[in-house]
Amino acid sequence: xxxxxxxxxxxxxxxxxxxxxxxxxxxxxxxxxxxxxxxxxxxxxxxxxxxxxxxxxxxxxxxxxxxxxxxxxxxxxxxxxxxxxxxxxxxxxxxxxxxxxxxxxxxxxxxxxxxxxxxxxxxxxxxxxxxxxxxxxxxxxxxxxxxxxxxxxxxxxxxxxxxxxxxxxxxxxxxxxxxxxxxxxxxxxxxxxxxxxxxxxxxxxxxxxxxxxxxxxxxxxxxxxxxxxxxxxxxxxxxxxxxxxxxxxxxxxxxxxxxxxxxxxxxxxxxxxxxxxxxxxxxxxxxxxxxxxxxxxxxxxxxxxxxxxxxxxxxxxxxxxxxxxxxxxxxxxxxxxxxxxxxxxxxxxxxxxxxxxxxxxxxxxxxxxxxxxxxxxxxxxxxxxxxxxxxxxxxxxxxxxxxxxxxxxxxxxxxxxxxxxxxxxxxxxxxxxxxxxxxxxxxxxxxxxxxxxxxxxxxxxxxxxxxxxxxxxx
Length: 474
Hints:
Layout: H1 8-25, E1 28-29, H2 32-40, E2 44-46, E3 49-51, H3 54-61, E4 68-71, E5 79-82, E6 88-91, E7 97-99, E8 106-108, H4 111-123, H5 143-154, E9 159-162, H6 169-180, H7 183-188, E10 192-196, E11 203-204, H8 206-218, E12 222-224, E13 229-230, H9 238-259, E14 265-267, E15 272-274, E16 281-282, H10 287-302, E17 307-309, H11 320-336, E18 340-344, E19 346-347, E20 352-354, H12 355-373, H13 379-382, H14 384-393, H15 401-408, H16 423-427, H17 433-447, H18 455-473
Parallel strand pairs: 1-11, 6-18, 7-20, 9-10, 10-12, 12-14, 13-15, 17-18
Antiparallel strand pairs: 2-3, 4-5, 7-8, 15-16, 19-20
Helix pairs in contact: 1-9, 3-9, 4-5, 5-6, 5-18, 6-18, 8-9, 9-10, 10-11, 11-12, 12-17
């Protein structure tokens, strides 16, 4: 099942606007390596900005892989098929706070929360990729290296990592290689993709630019995730902000292909918007979902794998508001076609991670993926012979083998924790969905066993962390 946000003429107009932004306005960067790469391959410098040409853009876009795979570690059978637009679900990255599972109060995220959140995500069937919360109690000089080690130790599922500093990137790659069984094994079966976040409007900052080159040279899939805010760091209009954002992403995609044609890349659009009354940055509905849908269609147009934020909203607790916000923002891009929908388990505009919300998003992920699968139309599913038989014999569909066959095959979706009992049965305990989610989180954290890293990999990661901390503080 697929929908379109733009019609064909509008889509071509959005692409044309993107090309015009890149050729007329271009990007700025303080990285001599990125500047040299672009200028050596046909771009022009004018007024301190790097301008692309139509020929450079067209040539680079032709070499971007339309699909590639991500893998779980230690032989985990979970394979993420990027480019197939299966709407995999990913946890939220960088949340500095959590809702405590016992007190139900907001507090700073800790390394223990990072461990537990990764473990819970590992246990949930419909959560497919892991991104880390932002622990406050680890050395900030090696924060992403520490996060990477913790998520790898607490989940065998593929990882999404945001590179905050190019200085830290070598340690991150070393940790990934240790878990994967070496650099060549990591290249052959990547267990993570690493994202850079350029600066809006149209600025490839030093660290993102340097990290881009190092990631591509290492042979690891690259994600590009600028986050322009409508009305603040991008135009207030959705079309204008998406066009600017698309140009920002494509500038890095193009650079990756100039450096290494065929390098795997993920477009990671994250258009947000500002509440003009308060100045708050919002990841709420409807604009978040609409912009994600628009950007996902552009990625589909280029045949480049994509990931969007969908499981996000402004609600501060796991409640009715967070439920409808997450469903709206995630379902729109899923119907358009995207590979990964991110921010599962988040609250308060992606500033808080919540164990109960992650369990609820696991259910939303299940129904969204069921929805986009569509329905098979065949002689068997049309069931004309069955209808005729039932009408002629006066029997019921309920007892027919056709019904049993398709029920066992999953013809009807079943909610993992949602209540479908009668009111009278529900009224005995009156348990709310968020309470059931909280209880399920506690049970899974107590019972789930993560496939461990090998003793050799675990020890190697410890040594990398010690080296990273020592070298970063000298």
